[in-house]
């Protein structure tokens, strides 16, 4: 007997819905989803190395260089040698990176309000409290 869809299927549908809604918002800010993910991670703290950033955002390290090259060319991030290891590059947001990220996030939050508006206040509160806990690594 099937009492409900599997969580993976439910999350996949919700994720697809949100990605489909976010993609044009990010495009309006000249960002890809992965660029937004990288900028968001760097907002929390500079990445001590490009490898750490790749692992943090779960992105292929061989493709990260091209992604960072584009962000750096546009003045959204900087990379400089780590004083402790000149072979490693510390990646940081620039002021423009902070601004572009904030503008994109404002528009994404407005879209999310529309999606979350389908829930009553109690459902919304529970969802927003529970999701971060589920998103943590096991």
Number of domains: 1
Question: Gyration radius, to the nearest Å?
Answer: 17 Å
Count of runs of 4 or more consecutive helical residues: 6
Mean pLDDT: 93
**Spatial shape:** globular
Name of the CATH superfamily: Winged helix-like DNA-binding domain superfamily/Winged helix DNA-binding domain
Question: What is the highest CATH level, the class?
Answer: Mainly Alpha
Give the termini separation.
29 Å
Q: What percent strand?
A: 5-15%
Order of helices and strands: HHHHEEHH
Global structural class: mainly alpha
Q: Give the biggest beta sheet.
A: 2 strands, antiparallel
Q: Segments where pLDDT lies below 50 for 5+ residues?
A: none
> In which range does the helix fraction lie?
55-70%
CATH fold-level topology: Arc Repressor Mutant, subunit A
How many extended strands? 2
Strand order of the largest sheet: 1-2
Name given to the CATH architecture: Orthogonal Bundle
């Amino acid at each position: 007997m099937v009492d409900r869809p599997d969580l993976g299927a439910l999350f996949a549908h919700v994720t697809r819905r949100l990605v489909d809604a976010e993609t044009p918002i990010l495009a309006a800010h000249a960002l890809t989803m992965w660029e937004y993910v990288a900028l968001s991670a760097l907002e929390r703290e500079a990445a001590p190395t490009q490898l750490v950033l790749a692992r943090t955002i779960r992105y292929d390290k061989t493709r990260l260089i091209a992604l960072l090259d584009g962000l750096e060319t546009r003045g959204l991030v900087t990379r400089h040698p780590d004083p402790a290891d000149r072979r490693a590059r510390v990646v940081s947001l620039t002021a423009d990176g902070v601004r572009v990220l904030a503008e994109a996030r404002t528009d994404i939050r407005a879209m999310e309000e529309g999606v979350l508006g389908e829930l009553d206040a109690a459902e919304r509160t529970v969802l927003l409290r529970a999701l971060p806990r589920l998103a943590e690594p096991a």
